[in-house]
Amino acid sequence: MNKILIVDDEINIGLILSKFLTRNGFEVATSTNGANALELLSKESFNLVLCDFRLEDTDGREMLRKIKTSYPDTGVIIITGYSDIKLAVELIKMGAYDYITKPLYPDEILNTVNKAIEAQKIINQPAASSAETDKNRDRKTDMIPEEFVVGKSTASQELIRQIKLVAPTNYSVILSGESGTGKESVAKSIHLNSPRKDKPFIAMDCGSLTKDLAGSEFFGHEKGSFTGALYTKIGHFEMANGGTLFLDEVGNLSYDIQAALLRVVQERKVKRIGSTKEIDLDVRIIVATNENLMDAIQKSRFREDLFHRFNEFSITIPPLRERGKDIITFAEHFLRVANNELNRNVTDFSPEVVDCFMTYNWPGNVRELKNVIRRATLLSESSEITLKTLPLEISTFAKVSAIESTFETNVNVNQHSNRHDLKNAAMEAEYETILNVLKEVNFNKTKAAKILNIDRKTLYNKMKAINLG
After folding, report:
1. What is the pLDDT of residues 116-157, one digit of tens each?
2. Which segments of 340-449 are extended strands (E)?
3. Segments forming the whole domain that contains residue 241
């Protein structure tokens, strides 16, 4: 069993992380300060340390230096509430596997922890024979991909058909669709239905890469290859060898990194930065984008030759609003996941919530629905999720929908009973304008007031007058 040491002076965070990781199959120890953590490391062997950057007696930079000096076989992830790209670059060059910021999200933590442990295993076996390496590659990875929810709508069934069609091949795939539609879940589903299913699936967020980090993250680097390269790092291509490499938001890569990426994809070989040794690659590449790459090519932001290397097969993932009753299928799945994560027993949705879910436009798609369910599960005081547990913009939308229906009925009546009443006509026009603007900005009152050219207080009063306050 893989062992993890959590170092955080906030006891509650340490406790929550410990329970979560224990529930996911790890052996966990905790410490609230650096001195005690180093003492534990001297007595026990740990696969990974999750260390808060700001501790009472030291900081993450000093802890990282001491851990990598005395315990080089132990991976390190730095956790902090302060997002600083320069600091992230420095820490990763010093040997940290990754750097994540608070608030912490369970899926992100589990994914990062699994990848860090897998990478550290590769680093710790430099002298393995080729036969042993092949054997290690054949073992099933520790990563447990998220379950793919199968919908029944026409859009969902077409998506499943395309996944099953392309999965058994070695084709590179471009996944396109709005942000939050579940592109990584589709990529994992392709991987799981392919001959590579028992090999690594490595996901990489290209949107968060800086120029300083991109080459090292993709291709790895040797110790001493550049200033700050204190330790050997395995790149994502090498980690994914034999399996699938998923590149999310690939359109955000800089043009020079695209050129380096093209060479690796064409030659199927990679060299770590600072090394002369070429490593043969057998990697299937799946990329995702929420922008039109052909438009990016026209604007000289994306290489056309790289696009055609990736575009052996393409899948467009439909937005949640086009999946009909699958919205409830997704919601039920996320409710089961949230109950397990939070140790709750919320079993149902109120009829009002179901109606709201079916009519809301879900601009954040599946990701937004998942977050809404997790929040509602935490806030629910009974076994049923009700409108009051939903975010304001969604509960307001439900109220608007109900009032809008009543309003339309009243308008039809008024049109027959008092067609020439200018006061009623003015009120109806104002009401419709307010509703339309609110819906346009997803019920953000500040934005709505700005568009309507009134202050927030006036908007609140008008909303209250039509029972929206």
Report:
1. 888 777 666 544 443 444 444 343 333 334 556 778 888 888
2. 348-349, 384-385
3. 134-155+168-318
